[in-house]
Automatic annotation (TrEMBL):
Keywords: Membrane, Transmembrane, Transmembrane helix. It holds the Pfam family DUF3159. It comes from Streptomyces phaeofaciens. Signal peptide: none annotated. The chain crosses the membrane at residues 54-75, 82-99, 111-139, 160-180, 186-209. This is Membrane protein. It comes from the Bacteria.
Amino acid sequence: MTSLDKPTEDTQQDDARAVTEAALFEAFGGVRGMVETVMPGLLFVTIFTINKDLHMAAIAALVVSVILVVVRLVMKDTVKHAFSGVFGVAFGVVFAMMTGNAKDFYLPGMIYTLGLALAYIITTLCGVPLIGLILGPVFKENLSWRTRNPGRKTAYAKASWAWGLILLAKCAILFPLYWWADTAQLGWVLVALKIPPFLLAVWLTWVFLAKAPAPIDVFAEMEAEEKAEAERKAADAAEAGGRHRREG
């Protein structure tokens, strides 16, 4: 290795890390997405802790979720994370209103978390880790990592295991509290567990992917193939035209 090689390799590694960080922020919503995830639940538990009014707490949580979506629409920003928050809060509100139990506001989200944990684990066991399905399009590699990039598939498998086990650990804390704790206690623990497990899972995903081979840009490959095909057709047409002129 020459003195010029190492800076080049370091630059490539830095570029790969930067691309990975940007992709993770895009996929998981970044700081703003985390804030939007926490705010409705925080508002619900704060209001309920103060006045024990299920209807006021539920409506306030739903209203702030809708406001977050409207703000994103006005700013012409992506709304997928805010919309998912609205649907999650709406399910919780409907469920709590139907049962009359304020703790049931949290139950749909807890069930979703458990299902997501199982999905990460099961898809990894089946050889199609969920985190790869989520991030593949973001990295413009789609499913190429499954057959053409084994090192990347291994990284996705490790990341999916991390997500699955972290979410299972979170469920192991929350479900007993659902039965034993009151609404305020469960709510504050839920708020406390919103961000740290998420950040841990994202950090581990970044660690695994930063060490993995670079993604194969299948979109660039398709564009290159289309360009090559167009050039071949143009060359064939030019050759055919030349033959006609010679024969004429």
